[in-house]
Every structure is written in structure tokens, then in C-alpha cells.
């Protein structure tokens, strides 16, 4: 239970100050959502793209809010007026919830791809070491063994601080949080002290939000400052990682598969079942068996191992955690087909991620690689042609829909198709279920079918409506249908 905090005590914690107007009051929780307000709540009115929190102040007060944080004059009994409510939210929440990030080891993982995998691997390593772990990210939150749903990769600051507070109450030792570029830009992780932050990679994505790669990079780089963290782990196989490592304001541990670094992998062997390799770090060698396949996952494992080393976790626990990692939802997730071909569902939805998954599949498959892929609507349009080029590396590429949202799927597919080399033959099927069916029906013994783009997602966004659609479930349904047709 959170102890009450006076509004007058909060004012000094807010960036760029603020002023208390009206009566002082005590609050016990913080929210930006008027629907979540209850007695003792502090409601923070955030102006957004679609809704302005100031329009819901009256509703919040009716719901029992003890006070509000606003940017302009609004009639209410107790208010703190600030210049930027969004920037004030994380600091207010941290104060009300007792600065939970100071009471456990928080690890922040950022990058275009690999965040979910790194946090899940780190969670398993921490557990292997006999400690308690928590994760927050794209596929949800987990505190110990309890799963929770979250609305986005990195929750809004008030929700995130409450989660951290719950972790403290649950006795969590290490919390691994996926930190998105949106979260960094929109102040969601302000007021969190990270013990370690990690960088996986930077690839073309989210340019509809950041404008260009430099803006995207600047958002990521803002995590690697002395006021946010004590130490950084940075994968330097890519140019952006090397730039992060050079500019970070804190000590850096570098990680690489293809070049010299502080933590590296050697003696690598790969198969559809996973990989084996030797980690070299701090003058020591750690033999590892990793049960999740893909060369890119070796780098993800190195990042997690390097973070674990910085946290003081021993070699045996690191090796044990890596060897015992199970399926990560929608991340090169093998679907048992009951056939003589393999099926994998993966979240890859950027050009580089698609290329990495396809190339890994080509290395490990004894037959052909068949890739089903598409591009999402209402998102970065510049990456669509490059996604087409990346997927065309497969032996058979099937272009389909992937969360078209408010856009015409045919328009999206045409943009993707424009990047595919003219000599390349692809199959186009806008209906995603039929595209998956076509891939499975085309598969021959030893082939590997890749279903790319949606991964763990359980809905398909079409014309503003989210319809139930889980690639993993659809694969199983279509395989069953094929069995029934044969019988």
C-alpha cells in the first residue's frame, strides 16, 4: 500500500517546477486515464493527438481524484499547474510510488529488434542464478510467475512506475524493461534509474514518428547518459551501435559476433533446434547451448550475458539460463507441423529483421525457404520497398496483408512489390489466411515455412477494427484442414 503524498511535497519533484493552487491534498496513486481514477488519485491531464486530458478533469474529480496536474487554468479544488504535463507525469508517479527503481536493479533494453528476446533471456539467467526477475515489454509484463497485459511495449509512465512498485512489493531483484524510442521521446522512462542499459541494433523503422534515422538514433542515444544509468552494454556489429558506444556517457561493455569486442562468440554451430557457441568475456570462456535458433539470437544472447555479467551473475548461471530458455512468443517460434517440413512464426517486420530471419532460415534449412510477409498500414511507408527486397531472398515469397489498419491493403502491397527485383517471382495473396494456406500447401519435405510480421499478436487490424487473428493458431488450423482433406 502506497503511503499518502502531499501535493505540496510533489511540486519540488517536477521538472521545470510547478505551482500548487487551491487546497493541499494527499494522493496515493497516479493516473493519466480518467477512467482509472478513484479516491486518492492524482490525475495528470496530458494533451494527446486524439484526446486532451484537460477535457476529462471534471470526470476525474467526479471519480474521486484528490488533485490534478494541468497545463492551464481549470477549475478544481486542488491542482498543480505545470508547463508540460507529460514531462511531469513520470516524476509525480515516481514520488507517489516511492521511487521504486531505486529499490531494485532495473535493466533497460533498447533497439529496433531483439528487445523482447534479450529481456526474456535475461529473465531466465536471473532465475537460473536463484533470484527473482520481472519483465515488461511487447508481449506483456511478468512479475515472478504472474503475467500481466500491458497496452504498449513501454507502458505510460504512471503505469510503469506502478508496475515497478509492485515488483518491489513482490521482492523482485532484477527488472528487464523494453525501452522503445517512443517511450524515450514521450518521457515514459524519465525518473527511472537504470542499473544497466543495453542497445541491440538500429534499423529502419518508426520514421513516420521520428522523421529520419538521425532523429530515431537521437531518441535511442538519449538512454545512454549519466543521469539515466550506471553502465551500458552495446552490440557493435552495426554502425549505429559503434556510434552509441563512442558517445555513451557511462562505461560501456561492447558485444559482437562479427568483430572484436569485450564479449564475443566463437565456435558457432547452428540448426533449426538452436545453436552452440563459446562466449569469451573478461578473459573467461563460457560454453553455451542456446535452444532458440538464428544467428541474430546469438547476438541477443551475448547482450543478455553481458548485462548479467555486469549485474554480478556467475558463469554457471549464465550458461544455465541460456540453455534453459524456452519458446519466446512469436520470436522464431517453431510450430510443430506433424509434417516433414518446418514452420516458424516470427515478429520480423522491418527490412533488416526480415533479411536476418530469411538468411538464418536459408543456412539451416535442407530444403527451400518459403516466406509469407507483408507491411503494416499507417506506419513508416519508406521501409516497404526494402521489406520486399529482403523477403525476396527466400526461395518462395508470398506477399500478403499485415495489419493494414486504415489503409487499402492493395496500396500497401504495391509499395512492397515496388522494391522486389523484376526478375523475382512472388505470389500475391491479400487474404492472410489464404497466404498461409498457400505456403503450407506448397511446402515439400525439408522445406522451412516462415510466417513473418505479426509474431505474438492475436489480432489483425483492418479498417479500424481488430479482428481475431493469430498466425500460430491459423497455421495449426490450416494444417488440420490439410490433414482432413487428405483423409
If you compute it from the alpha carbons, what radius of gyration comes out, rounded to the nearest whole angstrom? 24 Å
Largest beta sheet: strand ordering:
11-10-9-12-8-13-14-15-16-17-18
Mean pLDDT: 94
The CATH topology of the largest domain turns out to be: UDP-N-acetylmuramoyl-L-alanine:D-glutamate ligase
CATH class of the largest domain: Alpha Beta
Count of the separate structural domains: 3
Quote the beta fraction: 15-25%
- Shape category: globular
Helix content: 25-40%
- Largest beta sheet, briefly? 11 strands, mixed
Individual helix count: 16
Poorly predicted sequence stretches spanning 5 or more consecutive residues: none
Query: Which structural class matches the secondary elements?
Result: alpha/beta
What would you give as the CATH superfamily of the largest domain? Mur-like, catalytic domain
DSSP, total strands: 26
Distance between the termini: 60 Å
The second-level CATH architecture of the largest domain is 3-Layer(aba) Sandwich
Amino acid at each position: 500500500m502506497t503511503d499518502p503524498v502531499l501535493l505540496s511535497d510533489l511540486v519540488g519533484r517536477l521538472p521545470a517546477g510547478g505551482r500548487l493552487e487551491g487546497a493541499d491534498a494527499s494522493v496515493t496513486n497516479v493516473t493519466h486515464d480518467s477512467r482509472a481514477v478513484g479516491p486518492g488519485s492524482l490525475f495528470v491531464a496530458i494533451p494527446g493527438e486524439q484526446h486532451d486530458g484537460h477535457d476529462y478533469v471534471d470526470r476525474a474529480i467526479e471519480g474521486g481524484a484528490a488533485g490534478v496536474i494541468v497545463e492551464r487554468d481549470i477549475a478544481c479544488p486542488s491542482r498543480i499547474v505545470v508547463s508540460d504535463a507529460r514531462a511531469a507525469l513520470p516524476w509525480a508517479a515516481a514520488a507517489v510510488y516511492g521511487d521504486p527503481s531505486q529499490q531494485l536493479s532495473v535493466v533497460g533494453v533498447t533497439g529496433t529488434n531483439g528487445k523482447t528476446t534479450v529481456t526474456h533471456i535475461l529473465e531466465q539467467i536471473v532465475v537460473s542464478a536463484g533470484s527473482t526477475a520481472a519483465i515488461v515489454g511487447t508481449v506483456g509484463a511478468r512479475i515472478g510467475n504472474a503475467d500481466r497485459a500491458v497496452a504498449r511495449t513501454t507502458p505510460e509512465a504512471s503505469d510503469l512506475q506502478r508496475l515497478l512498485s509492485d515488483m518491489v512489493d513482490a521482492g523482485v531483484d532484477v527488472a528487464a524493461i523494453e525501452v522503445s524510442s517512443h517511450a524515450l521521446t514521450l518521457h515514459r522512462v524519465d525518473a527511472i534509474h537504470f542499473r544497466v542499459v543495453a542497445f541491440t541494433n538500429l534499423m529502419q523503422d518508426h520514421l513516420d514518428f521520428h522523421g529520419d534515422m538521425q532523429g530515431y538514433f537521437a531518441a535511442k542515444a538519449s538512454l545512454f547518459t549519466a543521469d539515466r544509468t550506471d553502465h551500458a552494454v552495446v552490440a557493435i556489429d552495426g554502425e549505429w551501435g559503434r556510434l552509441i558506444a563512442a558517445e555513451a556517457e557511462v562505461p560501456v561493455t561492447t558485444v559482437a559476433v562479427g568483430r572484436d569486442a569485450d564479449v564475443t562468440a566463437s565456435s558457432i554451430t547452428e540448426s533449426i533446434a538452436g545453436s552452440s557457441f563459446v562466449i569469451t568475456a573478461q578473459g573467461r570462456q563460457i560454453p553455451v547451448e542456446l535452444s532458440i535458433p538464428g544467428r541474430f539470437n546469438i547476438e541477443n544472447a551475448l547482450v543478455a550475458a553481458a548485462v548479467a555479467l555486469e549485474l554480478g551473475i556467475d558463469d554457471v548461471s549464465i550458461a544455465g539460463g541460456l540453455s534453459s530458455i524456452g519458446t519466446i512468443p512469436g520470436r522464431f517460434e517453431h510450430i510443430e507441423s506433424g509434417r516433414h517440413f518446418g514452420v516458424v512464426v516470427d515478429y520480423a517486420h522491418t527490412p533488416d529483421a526480415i533479411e536476418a530471419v530469411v538468411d538464418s532460415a536459408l543456412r539451416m534449412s535442407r530444403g527451400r525457404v518459403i516466406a509469407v510477409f507483408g507491411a503494416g498500414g499507417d506506419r513508416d511507408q519508406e521501409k516497404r520497398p526494402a521489406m520486399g527486397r529482403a523477403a525476396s531472398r527466400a526461395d518462395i515469397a508470398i506477399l500478403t496483408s499485415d495489419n493494414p489498419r486504415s489503409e487499402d491493403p492493395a496500396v500497401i502491397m504495391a509499395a512492397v512489390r515496388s522494391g522486389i527485383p523484376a526478375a523475382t517471382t512472388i505470389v500475391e495473396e491479400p487474404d492472410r489466411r489464404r497466404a498461409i494456406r498457400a505456403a503450407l500447401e506448397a511446402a515439400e519435405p525439408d522445406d522451412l515455412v516462415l510466417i513473418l510480421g505479426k509474431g505474438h499478436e492475436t489480432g489483425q487490424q483492418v479498417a479500424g477494427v481488430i479482428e481475431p487473428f493469430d498466425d500460430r493458431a491459423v497455421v495449426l488450423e490450416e494444417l488440420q484442414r490439410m490433414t482432413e482433406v487428405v483423409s
